[in-house]
Amino acid sequence: MAERYSSFQKGGRMWLLQRVTAVFLLVVLAFHFFLLHFVHHADEVSFLASRGRMESLSYYSLMITFLVTATFHGVNGVYNALINQGLTGTKRTVIKWTLVAASVVLIVQGIRTANAWAGIGLY
Amino acid sequence: MSQSYNRGLIEDFGRWREFEAGMWAWIFHKFTGWVLIGYLFTHIAVLSTGIPAAGATEAAVSAGNDVYTQTIVSLEGLLLVRVLEVGLLAVAVFHMLNGTRLLLTDLGIGLGAQDKSFYASLILTGAITVASVPTFIAGAF
Predict the structure, then answer these.
(1) Which residues of A touch B40 (CB under 8 A)?
(2) Could you tell me if A22 and B103 are in contact, meaning their C-beta atoms sit under 8 angstroms apart?
(3) Cross-chain residue pair A26–B99, CB shorter than 8 Å
(4) pTM of the entire structure?
(5) C-alpha to C-alpha distances, A19 to A61, A123, B130, nearest whole angstrom
(6) Which of A46, A84, A110 comes nearest B69 by C-beta?
(7) pLDDT means over runs of 10, chain B (141 residues)
(8) What number is the ipTM of this complex?
């Protein structure tokens, strides 16, 4: 039987997550750009204004979710691109775990920053 | 029954002369994706100046003399940064529009017009970027 090309493989959880995060990011990235470039302007940014926004639980939780989904979507996208490029075997395993480690560092640093703004002691 | 054929290595850029609209869309999507994830790491690094700034006195924060505000103000004062921000917007808008096109394609919507929707993504990206230039450059001079 002829093999049918598809990017969907073994349960396709990562494939689905990439698309679910894409839908979320479409909305939140548009909101992020609109709020921080058109409602507030880039040259008006200050710690005081960022703190004011981050002290709101809804904004804080939206930004943390934004950080986690953007990191997953971006890093998983890079991993998929490298696999398309022909990445296999030990190199694939090493790069996978390097990307996982980079993601953890990015998310932890992002949460520390958000906590510093929100006045949460843990940072 | 569907046909099986050898597609070659997907990212074999040496075949670029053979690429059609869908392949260019795919390459632009990868390129803009690489730029966006690279920017995300840079963005968090710059925003991290908020951590030492949280220890500044209330008077310094109110006056905008904390390290975070000073870092952002000095970066935004550079014309190069403003131009790069316009580039970032273009990259993000294309990735979002083409991403929407991909999500619809995954659902089987608009398959027959996938080349036209790619061209529409490009034109719309150009229009949104050009229209945003005054906002992004405001205060840089």
Answers:
(1) 70-71, 74, 106
(2) yes
(3) yes
(4) 0.88
(5) 21, 32, 29
(6) A46
(7) 57 73 91 97 97 93 94 93 95 98 92 93 98 88 72
(8) 0.89
